[in-house]
Automatic annotation (TrEMBL):
Radical SAM core domain sequence ranges: 5-235
Family annotation (PANTHER family): MOLYBDENUM COFACTOR BIOSYNTHESIS PROTEIN 1 (PTHR22960:SF0), MOLYBDOPTERIN COFACTOR SYNTHESIS PROTEIN A (PTHR22960)
InterPro entries for this protein: Aldolase_TIM, Elp3/MiaA/NifB-like_rSAM, MoaA-like, MoaA_arc, MoaA_NifB_PqqE_Fe-S-bd_CS, MoaA_twitch, MoCo_biosynth_MoaA/MoaC, rSAM
Record EC number: 4.1.99.22
Signal peptide stretch: none
Record field: catalytic activity: GTP + AH2 + S-adenosyl-L-methionine = (8S)-3',8-cyclo-7,8-dihydroguanosine 5'-triphosphate + 5'-deoxyadenosine + L-methionine + A + H(+)
Lineage of source species: Archaea, Methanobacteriati, Methanobacteriota, Stenosarchaea group, Halobacteria
Organism: Haloplanus rallus
Keyword Metal-binding (UniProt): yes
Positions annotated to bind GTP: 14, 68, 96, 157, 266-268
CDD domains per the UniProt record, alphabetical: Radical_SAM (cd01335), Twitch_MoaA (cd21117)
GO terms for MF: 4 iron, 4 sulfur cluster binding; cyclic pyranopterin monophosphate synthase activity; GTP 3',8'-cyclase activity; GTP binding; metal ion binding; S-adenosyl-L-methionine binding
Superkingdom to which the source organism belongs: Archaea
Protein name: Probable GTP 3',8-cyclase
Keyword hit for Iron: yes
């Protein structure tokens, strides 16, 4: 397994299959690349099926054992089932999707080898959902979640970005996963530096405190040092449900968690086939276009060797409480 200069082994890859999307979420970072495009026909700049598979075969040679497909909206790719089918068997395959295309396609994805799925759902309220995603697809997404559960994807994680528009819906969502078998909740700290809207930020520490109060059990996940709260309901005085009926709530808090980047084990690939060492940085892109496998191997090695943590020491808050690059830290390896 390859390791960077900060002792971080790369065990996973996260592949964006397209920057197209049928939604226009107000917060979208498009995997650190900015705006998504509309759901037009497949584009020439996207990696082909063979490009994706060739890269995954190389990654598997370096003992990378998991791949996450994302985007844009990965399900806009008609060849998704083929890509999954041709993914090396040694890799766990997951996907992050807005869920609209899961009805009808979920069984085929499972048949192809998809093991689990994260579905973005920011509120259990159709109006709020429409305002955030700029789409009227609330019912379709609910159907998509059902389709994923019916197809046997396990777990089905709901991704909720916690920011000004959604903070009032966190409790509902926690209740929802506690009551529904097979669902888990991932609360994602809003990353304002990728959207230019710092005013939407809310203090994720408050959510941690509230969950710590109502949780039956708290775990740490090694990846990103994420906290997991097991809850049986949002009423702290309520009856404790048997463990099988508890819901799991995981917090993904890159911005305020100083050890988040220390446990970052994933390299990213953009839809155009650039390797990228960090979600938030676009100054370390390395193209794999037209490369042989031997060249991809070398480029993968270089990408890993040049990875630098982004939050924590790399970024610091200035006197006005804004994030900026820590100049002192720039002496360490960058591209
Ligand atoms: N800054 C940063 N944000 C991340 C990272 N991983 C996940 N996130 C945030 O969390 C969002 C949802 O991530 P997902 O891909 O659905 O889930 P995941 O992080 O892979 O978690 P699992 O599915 O449990 O492995 C991402 O789009 C980011 O906004 C990371 O390595 N760095
Ligand atoms: C970029 S989307 C791509 C996959 C798919 N279209 C979806 O929405 O699930 C991946 C994840 O990034 C999260 N995300 C997007 N912008 C974000 C931001 N500014 N801060 C935190 N998370 C964000 C979304 O909520 C989503 O769960
Ligand atoms: S569905 Fe995903 S890719 Fe599309 S706009 Fe929303 S967060 Fe971005
Ligand atoms: S922000 Fe940190 S955890 Fe996220 S990809 Fe970059 S280095 Fe990894």
């Amino acid at each position: 397994m390859l390791e960077d200069d900060f002792g971080r082994e790369v065990s996973g890859v996260r592949v964006s299959l397209t920057d197209r999307c049928n939604f226009d979420c107000v917060y979208c970072h498009n995997e650190g690349l900015g705006d998504t495009r509309g759901p037009m026909d497949p584009q020439d700049d996207e990696m082909s099926t063979d490009d994706v598979v060739r890269f995954l075969e190389v990654a598997a040679e370096f003992d990378v054992d998991s791949v996450k497909f994302t985007g844009g909206e990965p399900m806009l790719r008609g060849d998704l089932e083929e890509i999954i089918r041709r993914t090396p068997d040694s890799m766990e395959v997951s996907m992050t999707t807005n869920g609209t295309y899961l009805p009808g396609r979920a069984p085929d994805l499972v048949d192809a080898g998809l093991e689990r799925v994260n579905v973005s759902q920011d509120a259990l309220d159709p109006d709020a959902f429409a305002e955030i995603t700029k789409s009227g697809a609330y019912d379709k997404v609910m159907e998509g979640v059902e389709a994923a559960l019916d197809a046997g994807l396990d777990p089905v994680k709901l991704n909720m970005v916690v920011f000004e528009h959604t903070a009032g819906y966190v409790e509902d969502m926690v209740e929802h996963v506690a009551e529904n078998d097979g669902l888990q909740l991932q609360l994602i700290e809003y990353m304002p530096e990728l959207t230019g809207k710092p005013e939407w930020n809310i203090d994720i520490g408050r959510v941690h405190d509230w969950l710590a109060d109502i949780a039956d059990e708290i775990e740490h996940r090694e990846m990103h040092d994420r906290k997991r709260y097991w809850v049986s309901g949002t009423d702290p005085d309520g009856p404790t449900a048997p463990p099988a009926e508890r819901g799991m709530v995981e917090i993904v808090d890159p911005v305020e968690n100083p050890t988040f980047c220390a446990n970052c084990h994933r390299v990213r690939v953009t839809h155009e086939g650039y390797l990228k060492g960090c979600l938030n940085r676009n100054d370390d892109l390395r193209s794999m276009g037209e490369m042989t496998k031997a060249e991809i191997r070398e480029t993968f090695r270089e990408t890993v060797a040049n990875r630098v943590p982004y939050y924590g020491e790399y970024m610091v808050k200035n006197d006005r409480g804004e994030w900026e690059v820590n100049d002192e830290y720039l002496g360490t390896p960058t591209v």
